[in-house]
Design brief:
heterodimer; A: alpha/beta; seven-stranded mixed β-sheet; five-stranded parallel β-sheet; 12 helices; 19 strands; globular; B: ABC transporter involved in vitamin B12 uptake, BtuC; four-stranded antiparallel β-sheet; two-stranded antiparallel ribbon; 67% helix
Chain lengths: 434, 534
């Protein structure tokens, strides 16, 4: 598939060159620059464009409040064009050429992995807003999305509970790449620890952008008719979801019979879909647009005004950027400088309001505390929250359910300052699961 | 809980005469459970309301289903909101008057509650006048396998006249009897036979989950029945794979058939072919959007309107591309490839800028939603219509090529350009219209694909590789080859998928094509003659 990659590479080059997105005119000395590294073209543009817009809105609002440290903030937007190597190039450009104070960006895990060496080498700051597979903690990265224990595990817990339908049989359906594979590995270990038998777990992977779900949905139907309550845990990515749900609806699988809980389906994805046949299928997130708090209402209003359209939805990664940006602002104010080392030291322990009526705190492992919500899809494309964790959940970077990562912890405060400290050997730099 | 509720509701319907004023208080008591804000309490309250025997119970259950049931936390009163938004006291049926009520909250419904409601209302329908509803009710009773509903089933059985519904009711009865410890061995053997007659996965599920302490004869009969069902299901699953293969093949055919003209007949490597498909899909979106805002009653015809429009839009785009770009590049395949590739990126980004990067919602008309069963095979209407549409497009295209003057000129130009030119055919215009025809067909494919795939700027990308694969495999320049290629690849893919998984299946198909092309470089159906030699 080198052909496809070549195609994307060229696409990036052509667009970046022709539109000149990376250049910022009239850069002034007395501004603080904030880098935005989200794909505006290519396959991931569907999800990432919104995040660029929400960052622009947050920066504009901060400037209206008087900026930061007496200076105005200035957004530097680049387009990595859904091309993973280009992410690294653009990140380097942002840090060494544009001298940004922090970067907000990336969506897929592979893009994050590709920029990691750059942020480590040039000592930059990256705020990563998307739920991911865990098994990572870096000094220069702040993970404001959910770790598996903030999304996948509570979702499974809910389905196993009486309210969730006492599910005994599980289909783990995912797109074939690192996030679903690692998440499913964790989930499989977790389910087995809860006494689920091998033959009651079915794992299946499909390629990116898969659109012909007939065989898979038929297999789910067969698997689900063994006399035990069955649920599907979906880590299907982006575009492949719409045809999957359409096929579910058409083959008449109702949420009452076989509920599907998804970790990558939010308000944005449902906007491209008639949700009437999907009522009752679930999603697990740390935020839903339908959550009724004054903070959220204000945020949605601001978003609609900023984007100029009242039907645009808000979603979980947007909230993650909201939290991450405010944390960064607070940490910079606390440190009195935008110097990355000072901010890294200052940001641990910083608490900011989230949109669901609570406070999220940056933990020493560079993950944040979040509430977990399970929502059921409604006919209007929104989610109705049917369950939530009683308190906040701390993001667990190294899963307790994988034997290799169980003894690992991350703590970026001095004197430990280590992302993979092995508690059984007492050394920094333990084995990693992948 | 579900079972008690189901049977309670059944009795409610069967014996509506039997409600008495004494129950009114019971109903008010039962209703208070709705005001607790917990799903378990809601399910309990549902059962209690049904068991109260009050004639208002059905209304209350329906209101809960439609999320029209509200409560106030302060005094625990429950209200129904009717269509005109007036509040009715659920306990008395009187409209609410005066100030307030304050702090009104909706009774929350989740899958568990919804399941309880469905089962309850389903059981209610065992005696419904509409046979379709009775059938689904019987299926619901079969699924719930609730010993308490045995008498209800017997009542329904004695009144049922429709043989199909009667059969399901008997199976539901058998499913209960088989698990009944008191039943005689004779009855249980008969029950095994009845369930085995159903022959599907549900039947297999019941027979495999029988308790171990069954009489030996019954256990043996069940084992035998399971083996028979397995054999039958294996046969049906093969049939299912063939159907899925044909359906995937028809999608491939639709995506590739336009390319079979531009690449196959004209020899232009058009990397923007997928974007012509995308334009067609967006045309469908625009048509549906216009219908939604101005004439919603026409929604079921939206695809019929979109098909010719998509043909025109994509065809016009193709015509322009040929006139402005491709005609300068004939005979230079590498430049054509690069130019059309760049063009595909421009088109994608243009659509992204104009329509936004998000998926656009294209609805299925009612005649393309849902499914029907043939034996144990589930056939979805959207797939069925796409197969029909693909074959129709193929047939029409064949007629155009073989039986119209334009087709004749087209074939003449591809076979021998100079000869055709000297016979007075204006070859540049034939080229332009041929390219427009191929692109227009791609646009029509886009209308069909909008029904099963995302309408996003990336739509075309997902099909371009598959399309080239089909055309190369089937044999360049041969429509029948494209048909055979698409169906072969579709069926092969779908037979491999259950065993190898979707990822490996795709790789295996690709490897197979590479090997096949080594052996037969010109594909399944190779063209003979002068065009090939040149």
């Amino acid at each position: 598939m080198d052909w496809v990659r070549g195609r994307r590479l060229l696409s990036g080059a052509v667009i970046a060159a022709s539109l000149g997105l990376s250049s910022v005119a009239g850069a002034q000395e007395d501004t603080i620059k904030v880098g935005i590294l989200h794909s505006l073209s290519g396959t991931m543009a569907i999800s990432e464009t919104t995040l660029k817009d929400v960052m622009l809105m947050l920066i504009e609002q901060q400037n209206e409040k008087g900026g930061l440290l007496g200076k105005k903030l200035e957004a530097v937007v680049v387009d990595p064009a859904s091309d993973w190597p280009l992410f690294a190039e653009k990140a380097r450009e942002l840090i060494s050429q544009d001298k940004v104070a922090a970067v907000f960006g990336c969506w897929t895990s592979v893009s994050r992995k590709s920029v990691l060496p750059v942020f480590k080498e040039l000592d930059g700051l990256l705020f990563y807003p998307v739920q991911y597979e865990g098994e990572e903690s870096e000094r220069n990265v702040f993970y404001t999305g959910a770790a598996p224990n903030q999304q996948a595990i509570p979702a499974v817990d809910y389905l196993m509970s009486e309210d969730g339908g006492s599910v005994e049989r599980w289909v783990l359906e995912g797109t074939d790449y690192v996030y679903p594979r690692t998440t499913n590995k964790i989930l499989e270990a977790y389910l087995k620890s809860k006494g689920v038998a091998d033959e009651d777990i079915m794992i299946n992977y499909t390629p990116f952008g898969f659109s012909d779900w007939q065989t898979e949905v038929a297999a789910i139907k067969t698997f689900g008719s063994a006399g035990k309550k069955t649920a599907v845990v979906s880590t299907i990515n982006g575009d492949a979801n719409v045809p999957f749900y359409k096929e579910l609806g058409n083959q008449g699988i109702k949420a009452e019979d076989i509920p599907v809980v998804a970790f990558s389906v939010g308000e944005e994805e449902l906007a491209g879909l008639d949700t009437a046949p999907l009522v009752g299928h679930l999603a697990a997130w740390n935020y839903f647009q339908s959550i009724d708090t004054p903070e959220n209402e204000e945020f949605i209003d601001q978003w609609h005004t900023f984007i100029g359209k009242d039907d645009r939805t808000t979603n979980d990664p947007m909230e993650a950027h909201y939290i991450g940006f405010n944390m960064w602002v607070k940490a910079v104010e606390k440190a009195g400088t935008t110097d990355p080392d000072a901010v890294i030291d200052a940001i641990v322990g910083v608490s900011v309001p989230n949109l669901t009526g609570g406070y999220s705190t940056m933990m020493p492992n560079h993950h944040i505390t979040k509430p977990v919500y399970i929502g059921e899809i409604q006919a209007d494309g929104q989610f109705d929250v049917v369950w939530n964790t009683p308190g906040l959940v701390v993001g667990d970077e190294w899963s307790d359910y994988l034997p290799d990562s169980k003894p690992l912890i991350a703590d970026w405060r001095a004197p430990l300052s280590c992302g993979n400290f092995n508690t059984s050997t007492g050394k920094c730099g333990g084995e990693t699961a992948n | 809980m579900l079972r008690i509720l189901a049977s309670a509701l059944f009795f409610l319907l069967a014996h509506t005469a039997f409600d008495s004023p004494a129950n009114a208080e019971g109903l008010a008591d039962a209703l208070s459970g709705f005001a607790k804000g917990s799903y378990a309490k809601t399910v309990d309250a549902l059962a209690a309301v049904a068991a109260s025997g009050d004639e208002r119970a059905v209304d209350i259950v329906r209101a809960l289903k439609d999320k029209r049931l509200y409560y106030t936390k302060a005094d625990g009163k429950v209200y129904i909101k009717d269509d005109s938004d007036t509040l009715i006291d659920a306990a008395t049926g009187e409209p609410f008057t005066g100030e307030g009520p304050f702090g009104l909250k909706q009774v929350r419904v989740n899958n568990r509650v919804r399941g309880a409601i469905e089962a309850a209302l389903g059981t209610l329908n065992l005696l419904a006048p509409d046979p379709a509803r009775r059938l689904s009710a019987a299926e619901a009773v079969f699924k719930s396998r609730d010993a308490d509903s045995l008498s209800a089933i017997d009542t329904a059985l004695s009144k049922e006249t429709d043989p199909a519904i009667k059969r399901v009711l008997e199976q539901a009865r058998a499913a209960i009897v088989i698990a009944d410890k008191e039943a005689t061995e004779e009855d249980q053997l008969a029950a095994v036979a009845t369930i085995a007659g159903r022959g599907d996965e549900d039947a297999r599920g019941i027979l495999t989950t029988l308790p171990d302490d069954m009489p030996e004869a019954v256990g043996k009969a069940a084992q035998k029945a399971i083996a028979a069902i397995d054999q039958r299901l294996a046969m049906w699953s093969a049939a299912q794979n063939v159907w899925y293969g044909i359906s995937l093949g028809s999608v491939l055919l639709l995506a590739a058939i336009g390319l079979a003209i531009t690449f196959g007949v004209m020899g232009v490597i058009n990397m923007a072919h997928g974007e012509m498909v995308m334009l067609g899909a967006y045309t469908t979106f625009v048509v549906q959007e216009a219908i939604r805002t101005s004439a919603p009653e026409l929604f079921d015809y939206s695809l019929a309107i979109a098909i010719p429009l998509a043909f025109l839009v994509s065809g016009a785009a193709g015509f322009l591309i040929e006139r402005l770009i491709i005609r300068w590049l004939y005979g230079r395949p590498l430049e054509t490839l690069l130019a059309t590739w760049g063009l595909s990126l421009i088109l994608q980004q243009a659509v992204r800028t104009f329509f936004g990067a998000n998926n656009r919602q294209v609805g299925n008309p009612s005649w393309m939603s849902g499914a029907f069963d043939v034996g144990h095979l589930t056939i979805t209407y959207n797939r069925l219509w796409i197969v029909v549409f693909a074959l129709a497009v193929f047939a029409v295209l064949n007629v155009i090529l073989k039986a119209t003057p334009f087709g004749l000129q087209m074939r003449a130009v591809t076979q021998n350009r100079r000869m055709a030119a000297s016979m007075g055919i204006r070859t540049p215009w034939v080229d332009a219209f041929t390219f427009a025809l191929g692109s227009g067909i791609a646009g029509m494919a886009g209308v069909a694909l909008s029904q099963i795939d995302n309408v996003s700027p990336n739509l075309g990308q997902g099909y371009i590789i598959d399309s080239f694969m089909v055309v190369v495999f089937g044999g360049v320049g041969n429509l029948w080859g494209t048909l055979a290629g698409a169906l072969t690849l579709g069926v092969a893919n779908k037979f491999l998928e259950p065993y190898a998984g979707a990822v490996v299946a795709k790789i295996l198909v690709l490897v197979f094509i590479i090997l096949f092309i080594q052996k037969r470089p010109r594909g399944l159906f190779a063209l003979q003659g002068r065009a090939v030699e040149s």
